[in-house]
Fold each of these.
Amino acid sequence: MFPAVKKPITETNMIYMRKILTVALLCASLSSFGNIRLPNILSSNMVLQQQSKVKLWGAADPNEKIAITTSWDNKAYEVIATNNARWEILVETPAAGGPFTITLKGKNTIVLNNILIGEVWVCSGQSNMEMNGMGVEGMKEELPVSRNPNIRFFHIPKTTSLHPQDNCAGEWTICDSSTLKSFSAVGYFFGKRLNSNLNIPIGLVNASWGGTAAEIWTPDSIINADPVLKQAATKISIPGGRPYIPGYAFNGMIAPITNYAIAGTIWYQGENNTGTAKTYAKLLATMIDSWRTLWQKDFPFYLVQIAPYKYGIKNSGALLREAETQVADHHPNTGMVVITDLVADTNNVHPTNKKDVGLRLANLALAETYHKNGFAYKSPAFKSLNIKGNKAIVTLDSAVQVKGKTATEFVIAGEDQVFYPADVSIKNNTLTVSSKEVKTPVAVRFGFRNTAVGNVFSKEGLPLAPFRTDSWEVEMK
């Protein structure tokens, strides 16, 4: 046996020894900390959904009895952990208010402080939902006045998993100039408007990842069980550093929060599905249904139609926008905001005006979910087409007007399916569309190309939604 080598006690050695002692003490404290464990999303500073039966859940010793007290009504609940060391219980929440506490007592005691009761929304999608900080228009002016204790953030870091997880990283924080810098700008402006109009606390859960396709946010079992969606998933074009396997982001970032009661979801995604735009309507509807099934709630799902951009595949953006419109129009409890006018540069896939995107989503939620009125929230949309001689009469669902001398982005075609730029006259919600090149019109399109930025708006200033009246095969090259 070799003799021990004595080392001189230097300042470096002392620092090293202190680190070892700190780790040892930490390990000792964890081993004796107790047995009730909670997922990260159940923590101090959280916002719980108001007037609901919200689920509390976690882990404990098998058969451990846990007593739970909620300060808003001083009601006592009791639950016993299963043989699998799991427990869950439903707790009734009152109307919005706070702050409150929740106390959990078993072999250890956990007290959750500064809890608010209000409305909880999930903010998800890809980079345009994730986008934050100084790259956003107006954020420099917003940061100094952003502190609001009645808006709370839970930001889930980018995480993937082969299987659905029951916990994720993250913590509830109070909205201020520091926490806002790394939070979704769309989510923030959405939440801020809800808070100011409803005068109740708002909790925002951000689960977004730039460059991801919708398949990544959908359970893989559902994608793989559908031949159409499974085939489309093989064509996902993903830049380096992003997940591309179906279900991976869902497993790591959505599955862990499906026990957490929410009011609804806002969604800004689609750019990375333009290559498979023809199957996107089915994919998005399937994803929405899968989320609602797991949350056991038919919550509202409000999406942002992707902005005009110079995609590499012809008409891919136009077809993707059409798919989003189909879902918004025909899928239950689903809505969409149009942002074709919020783009300064169609060579930039990340428009910097996120404030108006968030405000439009909030107005949609205020009208459709919270039944508020007195403001515009819905873009004008196509309703019907009638042919009268050499003119096509387009009827919209609301009145519109042109910003400029003539309406742009309208084209018209006959049976030969060759489209020509159209002349348009507008009277309230009726558009008369024609072209000298088309003697017998059959179809009209508006804004139906990747970079189209139209100039027709509602009287309240919301852009006319892109549309086409035909169902012809669209060229994608």
Amino acid sequence: MNRFSSRLLALAGLLTLEVVLGAVVFVAAFAVFFYLVRVVFVHHSVALDNWAAGVMDSLRLAHPGLTGPVRFVTFFAAMPFLLPASIAVPVLLRRLGRPREAWEMVFVMAGSVLLNQLLKLYFNRPRPTNALLHTFGLSFPSGHAMLGFTFYGGLAWLLARRFGRPGWVVPLLLWAGLIGLTRVYLHAHYATDVLAGFAGGAAWLLAFRAGLKLFWKEEVAVMGAESADPDART
């Protein structure tokens, strides 16, 4: 009985404000994703997509010189960038004596890539036909938005929680958001693809971080409780 109580107390200690807020944001991201699924695949509404495309077209006509910088920005969530970056960052973390964080980045990115591809295959939405650059694959959810949010959001989390640099959180998340906007500007994705990518990336990142945090802390807490409990050693 004492051992069971110790485990309950250890698990209850994990319900910090950070975990609760993470759970709330996860539920919100999950809800947004499935709301967009209903909008696109149940109601077949294109109102948001048409409005966003119109805004971007007006912006491009008013400032034609933006297209070059937009192509440059969108590259930073393309696989030719994310693949080497997802290797370089863990290597750097290992050199800094952070092997656990290195493996976290490897697994969170690998999981995001796999999840994104499974979702694309499941929803099977073709890309816009008027893209300003040649693109491959399916459209929903946007890989640039989902993988970019996972990568830069993961970096933001590491910098804030592990390296004491919370000032990087907002710039990195804004950068991920800007990359998502470039996909609509270039007609590489519909706006609903990008929003679903952000929601999917946020949900996956929070689920991964929460699961990892709970698993890691639970093991430490339970082991500590058992070592302090004489009955646990008999």
